[in-house]
Amino acid sequence: MVIGLTNDDTISAIATAVGEGGIGIIRLSGDKSISIADKIFASNAGKRVINTPSHRVLYGTIIDPENNETVDEALILVMRAPRSYTCEDIVEIHCHGGPVPLQRVLAITLGEGARLAEPGEFTKRAFLNGRLDLAQAEAVIDIIRSKTDASLKAAVGNLSGRLSEQVKGLRHAVLRMIAQLEAAIDFPEEDIEEAAAADVAELIKQADLQLASLLATAQTGRILREGLATVIIGKPNVGKSSLLNALLREKRAIVTDIPGTTRDIIEEYVNIRGIPLKIIDTAGIRETADVVERIGVERAKELVGQADLILLLLDSSTPLATEDKSVLTLLSGKQALVLINKSDLPARLEVAEVEKYTAGRQVLKISVTQGMGLEQLEKEIVNMVYSGQINQGEAMFVNNVRHANALRQAQQRLADALTTIEAGMPTDCIVIDLRAAWEKLGEITGDTVGEDIIDQIFTQFCIGK
């Protein structure tokens, strides 16, 4: 971990979302934060910011030093180092939340010696100053972008250090293996290298089980973080747009009895029992001479290849048609649920015939207009995401692709070390593989990560965080 910053700049940025609001916040961090605030703030009680103890609030007005003009009423919150988010002196200026007062106050702080913060620079300073490790810092942006309670819980869990603790535990275990082997190398007269290698082989197997357990949560974690990419497909007029509206619980898509109403792609997020679904309604898949509709059909087929889950709709009131069979062929190699819609109408579709084309996939009877089967559909989606095994309220998830890749690479390095042991190769070769695994695990917490990766991670943050 790199401790300390390479410069002593004081940074300033608007920390609240753009737009109108009751309160807006300008945040400063750095050695000059308190002195800058002292120059531009007049307390109604005559108190000075520079003399204010940490974690105290003052009420007064922001004054433009150039013309002594009152800009806005404000509260000043002082947080002195190291008891702050960045471990530096921080001042937050709480004023009215309109764009004009916020920009005006920000400009005044910049005029008094602060510079505009880069995206994510406050959190980057928190990381560089040792308050957060890299996995915890990345959890901050996951919290901001959470789409459901479940995704928020997963992000908060990682911010609290659940993932970091497990990764650090694994790193310590690998480090003990390295120490055990190096001790054997240092004392060749004891003739313990073979016994040490055998002990390490067992420890590698135990570590591999822990890595496998962590990686088993990666798919679910990614879905909670990014959303389950779900595509609704079927022939025209089978009820795709009606299903989208039912899941959203609002009339988002146009629904008519005219086949081919949906020509473009409609994308929305929907919360299914805590799981964010990035759900996409597509054009009905059929042969058509209409140029616009044909483009929509081709786009629908493309999206099927990118989806995490496909919801394929069939019409219970009509026999299985050639168009239906064509759509069913798109399911090859994909996770899908087959939904027989309009099940409240007299049935003309044979379920047994449908099952010939579904390769054992779940087939559910639903009626979107009557609300029949939708609860069962939601249950099946939840079971797919959690594999019916994980208690989402208590579980820790690997929800970051970077983390998952590092874990997989660490697992591979441990496997290489085990192969090296089994091949009877020199102890030095085993140590090389173990050190590689130790370094890969360190990339998750930031202990062994390069500056370029750190910079890339924090550019994903908004300015002010």
Entry summary:
The protein has 465 residues and is an alpha/beta fold. It has helices at 33-40, 99-111, 121-128, 134-144, 149-159, 162-186, 193-215, 218-226, 240-248, 291-306, 322-328, 351-355, 374-386, 401-422, 427-445, 451-458, and strands spanning 11-14, 24-29, 41-43, 56-64, 69-79, 90-95, 115-116, 228-233, 266-272, 275-281, 309-315, 336-341, 363-365.
What does this structure look like?
The radius of gyration is 29 Å and the shape is flat. Strands 3-4-5-6-2-1-7 form a 7-stranded mixed sheet, covered by helices on one side. A hairpin with a 4-residue loop joins strand 4 and strand 5 (69-79). The chain has 16 helices and 13 strands. It is an alpha/beta fold and 465 residues long. It is 45% helix and 17% strand. Residues 1-6 and 253-264 have low confidence and may be disordered. The protein folds into 3 domains: 11-133, 2-Layer Sandwich (Gyrase A, domain 2); 146-217 and 398-445, Four Helix Bundle (Hemerythrin (Met), subunit A); 225-386, Rossmann fold (3-Layer(aba) Sandwich). The chain starts with 10 loop residues before the first strand and ends in a 7-residue tail after the last helix. The protein has helices spanning 33-40, 99-111, 121-128, 134-144, 149-159, 162-186, 193-215, 218-226, 240-248, 291-306, 322-328, 351-355, 374-386, 401-422, 427-445, 451-458, and strands at residues 11-14, 24-29, 41-43, 56-64, 69-79, 90-95, 115-116, 228-233, 266-272, 275-281, 309-315, 336-341, 363-365. Helix 6 packs antiparallel against helix 7 (193-215) and helix 14 packs antiparallel against helix 15.
